[in-house]
Amino acid sequence: MMAPSPEGSDDVLWSDLPKGPLSVYRERASFSCRELLLFWEGEDVLRFKKMIFSALENDPLFARSPSANLSLEKYRELTFLRCKRVFEYDFFNMENLLQSPMSVLSVIQCLGMFDWSLAAKCVLNVLVFGTAIYSSGSQRHFKYIEKIYTMEIFGCFALTEVSHGSNTKAIRTTAHYDPATEEFIIHSPDFEAAKFWVGNMGKTATHAVVFAQLHMPGGQCHGLHAFLVQIRDPKTLLPMPGVMVGDIGKKLGQNGLDNGFAMFHKVRIPRQNLLNRTGDVTPEGTYVTPFKDVRQRFGASLGTLSWGRIAIIGMSVVNLKLAVSIALRFSATRCQFGPTEEEEIPVLEYQLQQWRLLPYLAAAYALDHLSKSLFIDLSRLQQDLRRGDGGTAQAELGREIHALASAGKPLASWTAQQGIQECREACGGHGYLAMNRLGDLRNDNDPNCTYEGDNNVLLQQTSNYLLGLLEHRLQDGARFKSPLKTVDFLEAYPTILGQKFTGSSMADWLDSSGPLVAYQWLVCYLLQESHQKLNQEKRSGSSDFEARNNSQVYYCRSLALAFMELIVAQRFHEFTHGPGVPPSLRAVLERLSALYALWSLNQHVAVLYRGGYFSGEQAGKTMEDAILHLCAQLKDDAVALVDVIAPPDSVLNSPIGRADGELYKNLWNAMLQESRVLERASWWPEFAVNKPVDGSLKAKL
Amino acid sequence: MMAPSPEGSDDVLWSDLPKGPLSVYRERASFSCRELLLFWEGEDVLRFKKMIFSALENDPLFARSPSANLSLEKYRELTFLRCKRVFEYDFFNMENLLQSPMSVLSVIQCLGMFDWSLAAKCVLNVLVFGTAIYSSGSQRHFKYIEKIYTMEIFGCFALTEVSHGSNTKAIRTTAHYDPATEEFIIHSPDFEAAKFWVGNMGKTATHAVVFAQLHMPGGQCHGLHAFLVQIRDPKTLLPMPGVMVGDIGKKLGQNGLDNGFAMFHKVRIPRQNLLNRTGDVTPEGTYVTPFKDVRQRFGASLGTLSWGRIAIIGMSVVNLKLAVSIALRFSATRCQFGPTEEEEIPVLEYQLQQWRLLPYLAAAYALDHLSKSLFIDLSRLQQDLRRGDGGTAQAELGREIHALASAGKPLASWTAQQGIQECREACGGHGYLAMNRLGDLRNDNDPNCTYEGDNNVLLQQTSNYLLGLLEHRLQDGARFKSPLKTVDFLEAYPTILGQKFTGSSMADWLDSSGPLVAYQWLVCYLLQESHQKLNQEKRSGSSDFEARNNSQVYYCRSLALAFMELIVAQRFHEFTHGPGVPPSLRAVLERLSALYALWSLNQHVAVLYRGGYFSGEQAGKTMEDAILHLCAQLKDDAVALVDVIAPPDSVLNSPIGRADGELYKNLWNAMLQESRVLERASWWPEFAVNKPVDGSLKAKL
Question: What is the ipTM of this complex?
Answer without folding.
Answer: 0.96
